[in-house]
Write a structure and sequence with these properties.
By secondary structure, the chain is of the alpha+beta class. The protein contains seven helices and six strands, in the order αααββαααβαβββ. Helix 1 packs antiparallel against helix 2, helix 2 packs antiparallel against helix 3 and helix 4 packs across helix 6. The longest helix has 17 residues. The two termini are 28 Å apart.
Length: 188
């Protein structure tokens, strides 16, 4: 039994209704390709009535706060957001970027993993901001979870390509993206 499993069992005893503990263990299993164990953890969560909080980001545009959920297709501008994100993706790939699908902890095909990465809420919020603000104006995004490494790399690129300062506050850090760099020094 790994140290992570020992710690998780203790957390399950101390906080049996905290979904974060189960998600953490599920993510550990998924990162090791142990999808049968992932399914068992998710079954336990379902039996207890626990749900994972979806990734969510907020951005203020024209004095109004907009909330974007990971994978949410209901936003009226979603077609425009996805079109802009696809065009940025083409430019990023020309510059050497390839999506880091290691951050998708689901047992799906590689192409589906890339599609899932495109739906991360912070990417959607940043592109929403680009579409709805003046060129060159700063963007400020708040996220309810920790930013993943792929989103971090993408927002660094966008800051340089779009000539924008982008501020992202996640649960761990305050990131200031400018000219393709981040204030965290790629340590998050």
């Amino acid at each position: 039994m790994s140290l992570g499993e020992v710690a998780a069992r203790k957390l399950f005893e101390l906080e049996p209704m905290n979904p974060g503990n189960y998600i953490l263990m599920s993510n550990i299993y998924a990162s090791k390709g142990r999808y049968e164990e992932v399914d068992k953890i998710r079954d336990i969560m379902r039996d207890k009535g626990l749900r994972k909080n979806p990734g969510c980001s907020w951005i203020e545009v024209k004095n109004k706060v907009h909330m974007l959920l990971a994978g949410d297709k209901s936003l009226p501008q979603m077609a425009q957001i996805m079109d802009k994100l696809n065009r940025l993706s083409i430019e990023m790939k020309k510059a050497g970027y390839s999506p880091n699908t290691d951050y998708v902890l689901q047992d799906v095909e590689e192409q589906e993993k890339e599609h899932i990465l495109c739906g991360h809420s912070e990417k959607l919020a940043v592109v929403f901001g680009i579409l709805n603000t003046s060129p060159g104006s700063p963007l400020r995004v708040t996220k309810n979870l920790r930013i993943c490494g792929d989103c971090h790399a993408v927002i660094k690129f966008i800051s340089r390509f779009e000539r924008r300062e982008i501020f992202v506050r996640d649960t761990n850090r305050y990131h200031h993206f400018k000219d393709g760099d981040c204030s965290c020094g790629d340590y998050w």
